[in-house]
């Protein structure tokens, strides 16, 4: 009886810990009310990570560190997005801090671009920002997920650091280089061109595997 009781307590504590993990989602829109079709790039960031280096694996030479957190004050939930110097790998002294209310549509120029270039046909980006138990992705997007998990072939949401999403059909340009992000049959592709004529389609679909030194990665549509 005592053992069963202890087991129940351990199980319910464990359940609480599992449930306490939340994600701050930035679902992209082109209008300030977030009512048109979702389009652009977005993120879903785990709040159980205190400090994330180089969110979105952007092209910057000196990537920043980032944190995403939340608190409930009276009956409102506030979400915080902070940037830190790239040397501040423990996220101690914020450079910039942005606060938003749950379920609000806000300009999101502060999000790091996950590509080196500008989006064709998009002037401003807004995001519908939410706090949820599971990551929320915009539909019809390429999803690039990074996991903090050193074991080969282990990619579960409990270990998710962040996911970057890019809308199907989105095109970026950078001088004579252009890149289009394409979904086909749940597979993710890049269509890279130099000078508009020299083009190459690459399948970048990735099932759970070790992409780099420490993080597992998944790419899909
Ligand atoms: C981004 O693109 C520009 C222009 O092509 C290039 O000069 C720069 O080195 C690139 N930066 C990174 C970090 O790749
Ligand atoms: C929070 O409470 C205030 C005052 O009671 C109310 O005006 C507001 O609508 C509430 N907000 C939410 C999200 O329930
Ligand atoms: C980041 O830290 C480096 C080294 O400490 C420093 O040289 C640089 O000026 C800092 N950058 C910012 C934006 O604070
Ligand atoms: C935040 O908003 C989302 C979307 O409406 C909702 O599902 C979630 O329960 C809200 N979270 C909190 C803590 O209020
Ligand atoms: C793209 O890559 C994925 C994963 O390696 C593979 O399953 C799929 O068949 C590939 N698609 C094509 C058209 O080759």
UniProtKB/TrEMBL annotation:
- State the UniProt keywords alphabetically: Signal
Q: Which residues form the signal peptide?
A: 1-20
Q: What is the lineage of its organism?
A: Eukaryota, Amoebozoa, Evosea, Eumycetozoa, Dictyostelia
The superkingdom of the source organism is Eukaryota
Keyword Signal found: yes
Q: Tell me what this protein is called.
A: Transmembrane protein
């Amino acid at each position: 009886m005592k053992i069963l009781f202890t087991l129940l307590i351990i199980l319910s504590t464990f359940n609480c810990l599992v449930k306490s993990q939340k994600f701050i989602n930035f679902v992209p829109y082109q209008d300030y009310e977030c009512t048109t079709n979702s389009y652009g790039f977005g993120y879903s960031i785990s709040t159980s990570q205190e400090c994330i280096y180089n969110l979105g694996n952007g092209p910057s030479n000196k990537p920043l560190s980032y944190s995403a957190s939340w608190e409930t004050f009276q009956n409102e939930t506030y979400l915080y997005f902070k940037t830190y110097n790239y040397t501040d790998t423990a996220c101690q002294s914020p450079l910039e801090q942005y606060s938003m209310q749950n379920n609000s549509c806000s300009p999101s120029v502060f999000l790091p671009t996950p590509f080196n270039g500008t989006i064709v046909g998009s002037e401003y980006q807004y995001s519908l920002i939410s706090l949820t138990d599971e990551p929320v992705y915009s539909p019809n997007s390429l999803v690039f997920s990074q996991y903090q998990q050193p074991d080969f072939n282990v990619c579960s949401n409990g270990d998710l650091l962040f996911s970057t999403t890019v809308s199907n059909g989105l095109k970026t340009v950078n001088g004579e280089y252009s890149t289009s992000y394409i979904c086909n049959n749940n597979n993710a592709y890049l269509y890279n061109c130099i000078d508009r004529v020299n083009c190459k389609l690459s399948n970048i679909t990735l099932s759970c595997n070790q992409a780099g030194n420490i993080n597992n990665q998944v790419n899909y549509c």
